[in-house]
Amino acid sequence: MPAFKPTRYTNKTMECNGCEFRPELYYDDQYQIWARREEDGTLTVGMTDISQTVAGKILHVRVRRPGTLRPVGKPVATIESGKWAGPVPNVFDCVIEEANHDVLDDPNLLNIEPYEAWIARVRPSGSVEDALTSMVTGDAAQAGYCERTKREDIHCERGAR
Amino acid sequence: MAEHHYLDNEEKSVIIVMTSGPSTPHRCATPFYIGAILASMESDVSIFFTMEAVKLAQKGVADNLAAMEGGKTIIEFIRDAKSAGVKLYLCKPAMPGYKLVESDIIAEVDEIANASKMADLILSCDKSMFF
Asked: CA–CA separation, B59 vs A122, rounded Å?
């Protein structure tokens, strides 16, 4: 088996209804969150362009305290905007390692650049490969991502300073 | 960084008793928003529609109701709460007074329940809220 090489941000982007999609990332089946492999065996987690658009201007983010175990289905964080409140869902067992303090202090960053403004870094309880089996990536993810934007008629808009 | 950004609350159960309805639309969004937040903080949240709130569970009513002019509809707030994990109960004894029949209830409602169910939820929960 070839040695694991983490995928890094490549500037390669695609769009569906104006919603940015990054093929190198991993997504939940509703395309609410993305995950990126890191070299140290952790995963970085954030919101998709779809999610930040549905939420509207994000006013508050709270992340589970580092060290906290997150079983499948237990949120990593909560998000509040003026019109939407809900969880940042979790699709694999993990432990919170770190929160992005820049985002906690300025949640609007999630609206401005959702794929750079990560929310938390987590360590899967099992292997990274096992964790990622619960997510989709690449062409299959792009098809599902575009399908959701069309089905729900979502047209993405980015926040501004 | 401020400590208040971290979540470390324990799991709790919460019941929100919803009595407000279409005659006071400005009171109809916040309970679902609060429910969604509580559920995403791992509370076990139930919203019990009774009195005029049962009208919100009638097909077509919440679709055409917003808490503020031009704002998000109440059905969208209800769906956000559902997506976050909130369970929705509808008070069966309140239905005849508003001429509601089961076939006319929105699919988001988890259970049409008797008043004793609300009593059970209130007596067994950690926190209760009334709107």
From this structure: 42
Cα separation, A123 vs A106, in Å, equals 24
E-assigned strand segments in chain A: 14-16, 19-21, 26-27, 33-37, 43-47, 58-64, 69-70, 77-81, 85-88, 94-99, 120-124, 136-137
Q: Within a 13 Å sphere around the CA of A136, how many CA atoms are in the beta-carbon half?
A: 13
Tell me, yes or no, if A85 comes closer than 8 A to chain B by beta carbon.
Answer: yes
Q: Is the ipTM of this complex over 0.85?
A: no
Quote the CA–CA distance of B81 and B76 in Å, as a whole number.
Answer: 9
Tell me the CB-side half-sphere exposure of residue B125, using CA atoms within 13 A: 20
What contacts B36, CB < 8 A, 6 or more positions away?
A84, A85, A86, B77, B80, B81, B83, B84, B86
Task: List pLDDT tens digits, range B26-54.
Answer: 999 999 999 999 999 999 999 999 999 99
DSSP code at position B11: P
> For chain B, how big is the Rg over CA atoms in Å?
15
CA nearest to B11 within chain A: A74
Q: Which two tokens stand for residue A82?
A: 């003026």
Helix, strand, coil percentages in chain A from 3-state DSSP, rounded to 5: 20, 30, 50
Residue A105, Cβ neighbours under 10 Å: how many? 12
User: In this predicted model, what pLDDT tens digit does every residue of B9-23 receive, in sequence order?
Assistant: 888 999 999 999 999
- Please give the residue of chain A at the shortest CA–CA distance from B73: A83
Residue A60: DSSP 8-state: E
Q: Which residues of A touch B33 (CB under 8 A)?
A: 85
